[in-house]
Amino acid sequence: MEKREMEMLGVALTERQLTQFLRYYEMLVDWNERMNLTAIIDYKDVMKKHFVDSLSLVKVFEADGVFHEMMPFKAPFLNEGDISKNRSLIDVGTGAGFPGLALKIAFPALEVTLLDSLNKRIQFLDAVIGELGLEGVRAVHGRAEDYARPGMLRESFDLCVSRAVARLSTLSEYCLPFVRQGGMFVAYKSEKVCEEVESARKAVALLGGRMEGQTEFLLPNSDIYRNLIRIKKMKPSPGRYPRKAGLPGREPL
User: Fold this and answer.
1) 205 class by beta-carbon count within 10 Å (0-12 exposed, 13-18 middle, 19+ buried)
2) First to last CA, the chain
3) Residue 217 CA to chain centroid, in angstroms?
4) Residue 182 zone, left/alpha/beta (φ > 0; ψ -120 to 50; rest)
5) What digits encode the pLDDT tens for the residues 147-164?
6) Domains of the chain by range and CATH?
7) What torsion do the CA atoms of 235, 177, 88, 226 make, to the nearest 10 degrees?
8) Using only C-alpha atoms, what is the Rg of the chain?
9) CA atoms in the 13 A half-sphere facing the CB of 154
10) What share of residues in the chain are helix, strand, coil (percent, to 5)?
11) DSSP element (H, E) containing 184
12) pTM (predicted TM-score)
């Protein structure tokens, strides 16, 4: 694990956490030989483009002037200041666990749900969770369209994150219904998305959200550009969203 690059982000990892990240990497490479989890398998690339990138979420909270040594999610976006009430996170379309599982390792007080539609990925995540002895994290097999319904996981989380490849209006329809009022959705982007952000404003407002801004930066010791889009949940999402599978992508709001 690139400890120095973590420290450049302001994240201090213990030896145990560094060991957990290394074992996570080893399992990723091993399982990737049997199933397609990631196209990135080189050690340095995984460390930077998956692990460091995942933890770059702290940049959002630095931008808001809020950072806590063990828990960066003491929320400027939540009304209550009690950390114990402000730490639930869902990663929608988590894939091989980025960013959600990496965030769990770095910030163990987080209560994390990893949601993905492919069961083979869930099997991998369950194996990693068990191997690393992590508690307060679960991997869930299913679609966002189904789990964001009333009675499931709807409006249950302080924070939703996603590195999934989709336009912001589509991602917002999948993700904002999971966020409780006062919480935040953060979309990881790898390019400048001014036009995409503008075209998503209508969808975000319709879903009960408000654009809070963008946090743009380069990953430590690289020329790799990242853009974290911040959307605050202002009111409950209308019950008809998200729509059935496929529609958010084919017919964006």
Assistant:
1) middle
2) 40
3) 17
4) left
5) 999 889 999 999 999 998
6) 3-250 (3.40.50.150)
7) -100
8) 17
9) 18
10) 40, 20, 40
11) strand 179-189
12) 0.89
